Amino acid sequence: MQKTSWAAVGIAIFSGMVAAAAIGKVPPALPAMRDQLGLTMVEAGWVMSTFATLGGCCALFFGGASARVGELRLALLGLAMMVFGALLGAFAQSYTLLLLSRVLEGSGFIAVVVTLPSLITRSTAPRDYRLTLGLWSIYLPFGSSVAMLTAPFLLPSLGWRGLWLVLAGATLACATLLYRMRQRFVAPANAPSGPASDVILETLRSPGAWCLTAAFFTYTLQWFTLMVWLPSFLVDHRGLSVSLAGALTAGVVAANVPGNIVGGWLVHRDIRRGTLICGTSLFMLACAFGIFDERLPDALRYGLCLLFTSVGGILPAAAFSGLTAHAPSPRHIGAVNGLLVQGSNLGQFIGPPAIAAAVTAGGGDWRAATGLMAGAAVAGVAAGLLLLVIERTPPDTRSAPAGHAVAEGGGSNC
């Protein structure tokens, strides 16, 4: 019986965390970058949104390509691209080079995060698939929040360029560790091969993959929007300092991690993914109404922000745990994950400007944001309910090439 290599799983998750630090390093460093390079607000916005733009456009194609190139090769290539991108950014003297560095980093980041879950499944016993993939969901909130929390202490001594170099070194170390563990990530000898386009098309015919993607989209639209606008709200409407607002926001981001861990444990304990998605979406909706209610005291509203992100963290764990269940075969896991990542990044791309438009139309009243949040939550519930129906259907009638869905171990989720 195959045993889970927890060392290999841990290195893969840690590599994802370090990759995610490339997102969290930018907000604290942005004032210094704008000052040194003379960036406009629009240019700074593009530096911030490069990763989400690339992910929203290309993640599925990276996932499909992983089946052809090889997941380990693409993961190592992605980490190398992140190293070179960080080095280019550290020595950039113009906006053009800085943006190019972010495109290189962002492309590497997408390659890393769509392939690592496939590597995790190769080093995991089938009975532990849902647990390890659920734990994988901590990579983004943990990595980005650690970067956001530590950057203010490192920037005075290192500067933003020094911070970029430190993270380049950490990324290179992850690539080295991943390569040294390569024997744990070997693909099955009889793994089929074929064009990446076939993998993508077969993935797009998986209704469960679409449900997971829709749920992830609605979650990210709500969660990322709150993370983006919370600092501005705290500074402009509550008169807090920029540093305090940043610290409070980083705390809210970090609160997502316990939810991710609990979510992984719940799916491992045979709680249905659809049930978790429905329950989490409804809870986030209830919290959102309180967060934007100015009649409540600020301490309570901040507590609701913590609950919003902590309980909300169950949803991505539930979604990632479905990768093996809704991939037509093991070689499709990267493409299914790419579809989820693409949906997540589309939520990041659409949510902040949509909320800004709603608040502006409401005359600056943040309660106007609850309409969009409510719509996203209801759509999340619908995706969860549909997933419950799909997962009661035998695998050979719901996947693209009949009979090739990846088996999950130890449970009745599917």
TrEMBL record:
Membrane topology note: Multi-pass membrane protein
MF terms (GO), sorted A to Z: transmembrane transporter activity
Localization per Swiss-Prot or TrEMBL: Cell membrane
Keyword Coiled coil: no
Residue spans crossing the bilayer: 44-62, 74-93, 99-121, 133-155, 161-179, 209-230, 242-267, 274-293, 299-323, 335-359, 371-390
Database matches in SUPFAM superfamilies: MFS general substrate transporter (SSF103473)
Keyword terms: Cell membrane, Membrane, Transmembrane, Transmembrane helix
Domain Major facilitator superfamily (MFS) profile: 8-394
GO CC annotations, alphabetized: plasma membrane
Domain of life: Bacteria
Protein name: MFS transporter
